[in-house]
Amino acid sequence: MSPRSEAESSPDRGNVNAREATLPLVTWEEHAEREEARYADALERMPDEPDPRQKQLVRAAMAAGGAGLARLMQGRRAEAVGWLGRSAERYRESWQDAPPESWGRLIGAVKARVLAGDREGAEADARWTLEQGPAAAGSPVALYAATLAELVLGEDGDAAPLATRLLAGSGDAFPADVAEALGALAASDASGYAAACASVLASFESREAYLEDIPVADTVIVLEALAEPRGIAARPRSDLLPT
């Protein structure tokens, strides 16, 4: 894959050109096979005891998510959907015995469904997420979970104040540009969303390490999936995004 620095943009959405970056050559098949092997290994060595089991379920969820992203980047969507669905299921399964404040698992489940394009599954997991009370918890990660869930459900009026709270608490605790993008989505603010989306993508392109070693701007993919039905998708281009 050759690096690209130009992005699609329109006059009313602002410039969303991705920052020029020199990205490593990616062999997606190798990434996918590695993650699929990690997933199989995690299931094979699944403990019975609750605490080790919930930790192993998270490892399985992360591996399945990595496999799904790799397949998505290959354009093998059916396989990607299957792996991302497994990821969401393992995240949900891990929640029962998870330590308090393990809000990242709820985010992982919802994001996996959105990445898979599974609207029904995303809405079901969003409702389940809200049932766990993340908005009341108030931590940045909890507020992210709550905001994301409300946006998935199309409850922009409920998402907006959550995004405001999230932005107020951003900084070292949470990326401000992600909070700004979520707030712009809730407000259907096309120019604000385009600017925030470009910033989030640039942050991914400047990274030296990625979750599960999968160089994909998954947060941008999720943001774009939420922006599309609101009519404000920025449609950036990058080697970190599917074509």
Please tell me about this protein's structure.
- The chain has 243 residues and is mainly alpha-helical.
- It has one domain: Serine Threonine Protein Phosphatase 5, Tetratricopeptide repeat.
- It is 63% helix and 0% strand.
- The protein has 11 helices and no strands.
Tell me the CATH architecture. Answer: Alpha Horseshoe
Give the C-level CATH assignment.
Answer: Mainly Alpha
CATH topology: Serine Threonine Protein Phosphatase 5, Tetratricopeptide repeat
Question: Order of SSEs, N→C?
Answer: HHHHHHHHHHH
Main pleated-sheet profile: none
Protein traits:
243 residues; mainly alpha; Serine Threonine Protein Phosphatase 5, Tetratricopeptide repeat; disordered N terminus
Topology:
Elements: H1 28-44, H2 50-74, H3 77-95, H4 104-115, H5 119-131, H6 134-137, H7 140-152, H8 156-168, H9 176-187, H10 190-205, H11 218-227
Provide a brief overview of the structure.
With 243 residues, this protein is an all-alpha fold. The protein contains eleven helices and no strands. Helix 7 packs parallel to helix 9.
